[in-house]
Structures are given as structure tokens and as C-alpha cells.
Write a structure and sequence with these properties.
This protein is mainly α and 267 residues long. The chain is built from nine helices and two strands, in the order ααααααββααα. This is Cytochrome bc1 complex cytochrome c subunit.
Length: 267
């Protein structure tokens, strides 16, 4: 008698085992993860090597140009403060605006032509940042000038105008110090100044002004500089004192001149 195998007990031909799919997914994940780990490790190694090279180069530039005031280990001397904890942001501002190295000892360092290339400045910034934690160079997303202009103007008038003037034109301080004009200053350096508080300027940390607040202030300043005054000649934006002085000298001077001319005419 012929025995037939039941259909229920026989697996249909061509159908994969249920565990085959799981095995394929596992193999795919292992392959992808291994490749990613390999690439990440390689990229990290290259980045670390590049950073170490930059730090080494920055240390050389620092030793040749900055150590005479700040000390070979950047711990500071009687001529210059310690740079531990100032961060890359402070270095980029001070060297990127030409304030450092100082031309001479005075009430404050003035902006002047750059003494170093941007590559050298970046290298010194990397070196100083490697000594101790500090503010980093700001992310480009805060420097685009696309923030809230109205809010930025309000924040600027509240926190900055008492020194820099409502138009950002700058102003005199005590003991020969001054708040510089903000016209033409790069957005990066404006952000860094708020973040690090150079010289007479207070530090506006993220607890005082958030990164978005700083971006809004930058947006206001850039808008103000790119759009002319709707009221005519703004006389440098120095306010009512400058306008009153202008009227007093030129307006009254013109009236006095005309009066003298009329009275001096023969009858």
C-alpha cells in the first residue's frame, strides 16, 4: 500500500525559513555598523591629528609673539593677564581685530591692521583653548543677520547704548577709555565681544543674553548700517548734543554773518 505524506506536515518548496529574514537583518546591521565605526574612527583620528598640529603651530606663534607679556605657559605676568579659561573666542577677537599684540601700553588696546594671518590666529586660538575650557568661536548660524531686528534693537538700547550710543557710533568713557564704533565690525567679532567682555566691556554670558539674543542684536546693527537715515543727514548719529552744536555753530553763525553783512552795507 502506498503511503502519502500529508500536505500539512510538508513545508512548501521555495519558502524561506522564518529565521532567515532575522538573520539577513542582523548581518546587514552588523555590516553597516562596522563600516560606520571604521569610518568614524578614521575621521576622528584625522581630526585629532589636525587639531594637534594646529595646537603645536599655535604654541610656536604664541611663544614668539605673545609670551613676553602673557608668559611662556600663558599664566600671565605683570605685563599681561593669564589666558587660562579665556577660550578661543577671546583670542579670535583680540588678534582678529588687531588689538593684540598691543602697540603700546595704554588705557586700552585700539583696533589696528592685523599682524597675523587667519590661519595663525586659528592656531593660537586652538592652543589657548587646549589649556583650559572657555568660550568657543561662535557658530555661523548666529552670525547671519536674519534674527529679530525689532527685538535686537530693544536689547541693544537696554544693554549697549549707554556706552556705544544708540546708533552704535561709540563714545568716550573715563580715564582715556572709549567704547568703539560698531560700524563695519564683523558679526563674529561683535558676538565674541559680547561673549568675552574685552577691556571695559561687561561679559554677556548666555545667562544674560542667549545666543539668539546676541544674534538679534547683530541683526539690528547690520540692518541699521545698511539702511540710511529716513530723517535726512544724521550727523553721525551722535544724538541731540551733536545736532544742537551744529545748529549753534552753523545756524547762529550764519545769522550773525548775515546781520553783519546787512549792517555793513552803505545807506
Amino acid at each position: 500500500m502506498r503511503t502519502h505524506t500529508s500536505i500539512a506536515g510538508r513545508r512548501p518548496s521555495g519558502r524561506r525559513h522564518p529565521l532567515a529574514t532575522v538573520a539577513l537583518i542582523t548581518i546587514g546591521l552588523l555590516t553597516t555598523g562596522g563600516a560606520y565605526a571604521l569610518l568614524s574612527t578614521s575621521a576622528t583620528a584625522e581630526s585629532t591629528a589636525a587639531s594637534q598640529q594646529s595646537i603645536t603651530e599655535g604654541q610656536k606663534v604664541f611663544a614668539a609673539n605673545c609670551a613676553s607679556c602673557h608668559g611662556l605657559s600663558a599664566m600671565g605676568t605683570d605685563k599681561g593677564p593669564s589666558l587660562y579659561g579665556v577660550g578661543a573666542s577671546s583670542v579670535d577677537f583680540q588678534m582678529g581685530t588687531g588689538r593684540m599684540p598691543l602697540a603700546f601700553q595704554g588705557p586700552q588696546g585700539a583696533e589696528k591692521p592685523l599682524q597675523f594671518t587667519q590661519e595663525q590666529i586659528d592656531a593660537v586660538a586652538d592652543y589657548i583653548a587646549s589649556l583650559a575650557p572657555g568660550p568657543a568661536i561662535p557658530d555661523e548660524k548666529w552670525l547671519k543677520g536674519d534674527g529679530d531686528i525689532a527685538l535686537g534693537g530693544q536689547l541693544f538700547r537696554t544693554n549697549c547704548a549707554m556706552c556705544h550710543n544708540v546708533a552704535g557710533a561709540g563714545g568716550a568713557l573715563t580715564e582715556g577709555k572709549f567704547a568703539p564704533s560698531l560700524a563695519g565690525v564683523e558679526a563674529r567679532h561683535i558676538y565674541e565681544a559680547m561673549e568675552t567682555g574685552p577691556q571695559n566691556m561687561p561679559v554677556f554670558s548666555d545667562l544674560n543674553l542667549s545666543p539668539q539674543d546676541k544674534a538679534d542684536i547683530i541683526s539690528f546693527l547690520k540692518y541699521q548700517q545698511e539702511h540710511s537715515s529716513v530723517g535726512g543727514v544724521d550727523l553721525g548719529g551722535l544724538g541731540p548734543v551733536a545736532e544742537g552744536l551744529f545748529i549753534w555753530i552753523f545756524g547762529l553763525g550764519a545769522i550773525v554773518g548775515v546781520t553783519i553783512w546787512i549792517t555793513a552795507r552803505p545807506n
